[in-house]
TrEMBL record, chain A:
Pfam families: ABC_tran (PF00005). Its main location: membrane. It is a peripheral membrane protein. One of its GO terms (cellular component) is plasma membrane. GO terms for molecular function: ATP binding; ATP hydrolysis activity. Residues 4-245, 267-481 form the ABC transporter domain. It is found in: Cell inner membrane. This is Peptide/nickel transport system ATP-binding protein. Belongs to the ABC transporter superfamily.
From TrEMBL, chain B:
Its main location: membrane. InterPro entries: BP-dependent_transpt_permease, MetI-like, MetI-like_sf. GO terms for cellular component: plasma membrane. Belongs to the binding-protein-dependent transport system permease family. Residues 78-267 form the ABC transmembrane type-1 domain. GO terms for molecular function: dipeptide transmembrane transporter activity. It comes from Modicisalibacter xianhensis. This is Peptide/nickel transport system permease protein. The keyword Protein biosynthesis does not apply. It comes from the Bacteria.
Automatic annotation (TrEMBL), chain C:
Its main location: membrane. The keyword Transmembrane applies. Residues 104-305 form the ABC transmembrane type-1 domain. Keywords: Cell membrane, Membrane, Transmembrane, Transmembrane helix, Transport. This is Peptide/nickel transport system permease protein. It is found in: Cell membrane. It comes from the Bacteria. InterPro entries: MetI-like, MetI-like_sf. Belongs to the binding-protein-dependent transport system permease family. OppBC subfamily.
Amino acid sequence: MTSLHVDRLSVSANDQVLVAPFSFSLQAGQCLTLLGETGAGKSLLAQAIMGTLPAGLTAQGQITLDGEDLMALTLPRRRAIWGRRLILLPQEPWHALDPLMTAERQIQETYRHAAGHDTERAVRYARQDLVSLGLDTAGARLPGELSGGMAQRVAFAAARAAGGKMVIADEPTKGLDSARRDDVVAMLKQTLAEGGTLLTITHDVEVARQLGGRIMILRNGDCIEAGPADQVLQQPISEYGRRLVAAEPSRWAPRRQYSRPDAPPVIEATQLSKARGGRTLFSEISLSIAPGEIVGISGPSGCGKSTLGDLLLGLSRPDRGQVRRAPGVAARRFQKLYQDPPAAFAPHWTLDTLLKDLIRQHRLDATRIPPLMDRLGLANVLLDRYPSDVSGGELQRFALLRALLLDPVMLFADEPTSRLDPITQQETMALLIELARERECAVMLVSHDEALIRHSCDRCLSLGNAEPHRPVPSTASSLPA
Amino acid sequence: MTTFTLTPRWLARRPNARYMGLVLLVLLLLFAWLTPWLFPADPARQNLLHTLATPSLSEPLGTDHLGRSQLARLASAIRLSIGLALLSVLSAAIPGVLLGVAAGWRGDWLDRGLGLVADCVLAMPGLLLVFMLAAMAPGQFWSLYVGIALVLWVEYFRVVRAATRSLVTSPQLQASRLLGFGKVYLFRRHLWPELAPSVLTLAAFGAANAVLAVAALGFVSIGLRPPTAELGLMMTELLPYYQEAPWVLLQPIAAVFLLVLSFQLLAGRDPR
Amino acid sequence: MSQAIVRLLVSRLLQAGLVAWAVGTLTFLLTRALPGDMAYRIAAGRYGYENVDRDAAQAVASELNLDSHPLSAYAHWLGDLLQGKLGHSLVSGEPVWQELGHQLGHSLDLALTAVVLALLIGPPLGMLAGLRRGKALDKASLVAATGLRSLPPFVIGLLLIMLFSVTLGWLPAAGHGTAAHLWLPALSLALGLAAVSARVSRNAMARVASAPFYAFAMTKGLSPQRTFWRHGLRNVGVPVVAYLGVQLIYLIEGVVVVESLFAWPGIGHALVHALVARDVPMVQGTALAMGLLFVALNTLVDLACLAIDPRRRPA
């Protein structure tokens, strides 16, 4: 029987407490989800339980696995538990796999060297795993040749091959789109169905909802709220819990109807086609966008959503078809918001310098800045900082400020909130929509989150039927000779 | 977000290597340029009555096998090495950086053409090229300088081209372009701040290599001719007198070591 | 698999062509820069001094169009090079090919011994330092590597001579013939190579040891030793071997100067002699051999990279 008891566990660096004393207990077959925004110290908890905290960090408290006190064990004794009784699923599977070893051998070696089977059995079990995960042709491939979803499955199989029942999953859906996220959740539930015990750490409310079981909400290293999943997610008691749940796009307030069918379009595209690397991204796309209209663009990753934006903004040329902008509108009034806000700013200059550059370049009226900053909730002190020293949400609002100063008629927003935590995402989207409506600026909003698009856009354009992320080479020829 | 640094304590306590390199270089510069003022002596004047003299008040570093003042010769040789190094680094860095930016930005035929020229230079170890160029005009300062600069520019070109290539398609540059900024602005605000650290590192490594190349040429007697005071040449000349006067031979060795060390520390980076 | 090798060999072959062209052009320019009767010197280089008279020199002059046009003379020069006509040494009168044949073996002995020594010293120390970052060994190796990198190989050689042959009297300073003669020159080259590859290994080891896949290998149940052998060694090896390609420049440059210091009868020594004596055919031959040796060693490094890094073998 697998059981895990954590009693007043805390993590600290020197004298600074990073995770406040924290307790829970988990019986065999149960499922517990720790929910909280990035940087809430959740991952440190997982590392403390495993015994893999980085040098300089120490854990206090008690961790009991099947009645054995883990904190009392020496490091070699603790290592003996890894894989065999306690499993840590890796965060980013692509990075968790040795880039120089084939997928099959990475599963094999766990059977051979961690579970202690003989070579012949290890080979057989690894093959069985691959077949049951639908990866029978991928065994001879290197991690770099696997898609994200495939790498995730290989890592799961490799991690679990030594037979442990207590599974810790640390942000298992980081950076995945919704379809792949659901796959991962299904795999985790499979673990439960097979008699495993599951501790999941995530920032994604949807993952917590699908897993069920019990939930604990963490913030700044403290547990704020705990209880059964339906209860916590239906009627959170804490203020933070309520905001976190309300920030889910599917719970956003419904958008107001908006239409200006009579106005001439700000941009029109006819029969656009584009191929990249010999693969057609999309063909014969036609669209027309009215002033102030908010249009969602959805589709699986790699289907050419960002490329479409480049064509519309004039950053690259279509293979066929043409883009027509409203006559008499300056090119600089077509602007873009980026997925990763820090990447869109010159990193070596303060925000003030960059704003002043913009004012000087276009002889703008500098007095417009303070009210706009107020409106966007940006404090003046931020001006003296470098882009890397402000939060992602603030920087994205700065990007919005920068664009708005040029009186844009269209904003291409490429996943503008996907790197932000849920509450910041909600605030940023609300501001973006409000300002766009007010200024009759059309927005094209790229997102992989269907609910977000449904709740913020007037209509949605689906790009799709794209092939998988990577062309699949045949197995036989990828064997090293 | 909680941030904490995991820098090992010894690393934080270690004095900054670049700073040490700078201090060392300044000391060498002072030695090389102040010596003629404080101890005016002709580095070429022989005094066969006072050969291989031990250090004294009038000759703080002793004399060589022809009775020439080691202090004056050493200072003169260091001036020569540093001067040549800085000159060739400068004349390699400026075209290297400009061509690298041009090739990385424009791509296409310009990129391919310049890439081919760079490949030609890199097909052989640089010192072989410098050797052959130096042999064309033996003993001439300019042939050393041209040879070294010709070999050095390629490094700047390649590094800058690669960095420019990846920056040109980066969101930060694209964003500024959409905001209506011109090429000069993009270079000043985006490219140069990213390139400058690598260019400075390359410059320091380049200076170190130039010092080494000149010494190597002098050592095998292809470079500058006697009676010029040059570090490699001095080693060759003094080698036969090692047993009589080891301190004299060790002087140019120490000078090369300190010069190269100061530039290496200034570069401030491990290979890779 | 074979496709990757073919592509690699073709690009290295192109490089060899570039080397030949560059050496040919530079030596051609060298002939033009020489004082005295060029035709006479070249004729002597071809046929040996005893067979040269005014007529022979005249024949060469007209054959190579030496008097007429520099461009056609250049074409002839490269044409000869293409056919492998390297001529005779102006100093010894021996055919250049024959001289090179003797020297190449010596240079290879020296270069390969140095590389093997460097690989025995550098990477093991570097990896140990990388696994114990911040400990005494790491600090000591940083200081030693910084110091050694600031010394050119011939200065290391000088210091080794002072220490081992003059002061201690253990090893011979110059010459060749016995294994003892190989030690000092090989070590002069190996120390500098080892210092750099130790730092490269150290940084690679540190990077690998803190990589998520290294941690994952242990959390899935492998012991630290097994993790090192199965996931550490090869991942460290890839950058170390790849960097060896960069270090070949140091090696070849070092061979030239170190051979001169130790009077080691290899190609580098001969190149320096030829340059000093203005022996143009020998300059061309030895520079060509040095350049091609560089290309050949680079090809070996490429093949080694291909062998240990499966990512370079596209399916």
